[in-house]
Amino acid sequence: MCAHVVVAEDDPKQADLIRRYLEREGHRVVVVHDGRAALEAARGGPAELLVLDVMMPVMDGLDVCRALRAESALPVLMLTARATEEDLLLGLDLGADDYLTKPYSPRELMARVRSLLRRSSGALPQETPAPPPTPSPALTAGAVTVDPLRHEVTADGRYVSCTPAEFRLLEVLAAEPGRVFTRAQLLEQLHGIDRYITTRTVDTHVMNLRRKIEPHPRRPARLLTVYGIGYKLAEGPHGAS
């Protein structure tokens, strides 16, 4: 699919490389080199995706994402040389839809772009829309409840703010509490099948969710790792198996 993409990258060589790969796939590309220009381009035109570097002059990418999320659901793919867990979680907390650390291969970048555009285009109205599916009833696993009808998550009765990807991951796990899902199965639910997207995306969402639904995130009792396989949402009244 052809889309209007804003690329915010202060390194001219890197920006030109991203532009060329995007244009090779048929996208219309606008390149900007500072955060304020990125925010203006995202606000002022028919942008369908923002590829956003974190470290930029005038206004950094985190501030851009924070400001944009207060007014828009435009998909944001963040690029950064910072690869620590805290950096990844901060970007996702601010509403980034995906996060790619440098150095990255152009093929992986394009795969992430394709995935985000597929997900966002699926939410667009069609010329002859089909009747909406009947939402599933609320799903409960221990102290965690996922309500697809209201698109809400609660833990211990407390509302939990989730990104769309986090909500979908919890929805899948809560539909079958106790079942172990592989990273590949969860990734397919989040992004569809794409050979260049890594399972690190799932791990990052899990780390973020644990901060939100676990009483003690460093000692998870609800969103559990099954080593060598994947993840499960625990059963039981307090989220323990």
Automatic annotation (TrEMBL):
Positions of the DNA-binding region: 136-235
Domain of life: Bacteria
Protein name: Response regulator transcription factor
Positions of post-translational 4-aspartylphosphate modification: D53
Organism: Streptomyces celluloflavus
PANTHER family given in the database record: DNA-BINDING DUAL TRANSCRIPTIONAL REGULATOR OMPR, REGULATOR OF RPOS
UniProt xrefs under InterPro entries: CheY-like_superfamily (IPR011006), OmpR/PhoB-type_DNA-bd (IPR001867), Sig_transdc_resp-reg_C-effctor (IPR016032), Sig_transdc_resp-reg_receiver (IPR001789), WalR-like (IPR039420), WH-like_DNA-bd_sf (IPR036388)
Keywords: DNA-binding, Phosphoprotein, Transcription, Transcription regulation
OmpR/PhoB-type domain segment(s): 136-235
Key word Transcription regulation present: yes
